[in-house]
Design brief:
Elements: E1 3-8, H1 13-17, H2 29-42, E2 49-53, H3 56-69, E3 73-76, H4 98-110, H5 125-140, E4 146-151, H6 153-164, H7 171-180, E5 188-194, E6 197-205
Parallel strand pairs: 1-4, 2-3, 2-4
Antiparallel strand pairs: 1-5, 5-6
Length: 212
């Protein structure tokens, strides 16, 4: 039975501070610790291949895992986080950028079913859905029995929505998956290939923190 393990990257200061992160946001000290704890668990999963988002926080997480499991890492833009407008990346709550962020969020909801609408240079829901389909096709063609992918919360949640609905969800439903499902840093989500294609077996497993 083929298995795909999705792992959310370790903790960042952006996760703690609530600001919208850019691609170069690194792990903080706790995030590095989480990655090491996760790596110890991954050694028991018999993973044959490690693939990572090309964003720094995912790369750092994947590198710790791969080193522990004596595997190399393949980096791919397919599994990057959803791109927010450049103008709002890195904002700190209560800063002057708050009004811009609220405007973006309001306009995004107002144009949710307009597949061509962009606020700025962000990746809209239609863009994200198309990338998820491309990522799913890529995974279908992998030969390894067990693959681990280090990615991001929003991507994992929307990928899960794609699997659950067989790719037939509306733009509104795709948007809702981003906010109705919750993940924690270094939580493990497992998909297995069964009789009816890929199926969700485990969601956001973080048992590796039980003794830490």
């Amino acid at each position: 039975m083929r298995k795909i393990y999705f792992v959310r990257h370790g903790e960042t200061n952006g996760n703690l501070g609530g600001y919208w992160q850019g691609p170069d946001e690194p792990l903080n000290e706790n995030g590095l610790k989480q990655a090491r704890i996760l790596a110890n668990r991954v050694k028991d999963l018999n993973v044959g291949r490690v693939i990572s988002s090309s964003m720094k926080r995912a790369v750092q997480t994947a590198d710790v895992i791969a080193q522990s499991a004596n595997l190399s890492v393949e980096y791919s833009d397919l599994f990057r986080e959803v791109k927010n407008p450049t103008s709002v990346q890195g904002y700190v709550p209560d800063s002057d950028k708050d009004k811009l962020i609220e405007l973006y969020k309001t306009e995004r909801l107002n144009h949710l079913e307009d597949i061509d609408w962009h606020f700025e240079d962000e990746e809209n829901v239609a863009d994200m859905t198309n990338r998820i389909k491309e990522a799913a096709s890529y995974l279908d063609n992998l030969k390894e029995e067990s693959v681990l992918i280090v990615s991001h919360g929003n991507f994992i949640r929307n990928f899960t929505g794609h699997i659950i609905t067989d790719g037939s969800y509306s733009l509104t439903e795709a948007f809702n998956f981003r906010f109705k499902l919750k993940t924690i840093n270094t939580g493990i989500t497992l998909f297995v290939e069964g009789e009816h294609g890929w199926q969700l077996l485990t969601w956001n497993d973080h048992a590796h923190f039980a003794d830490n």
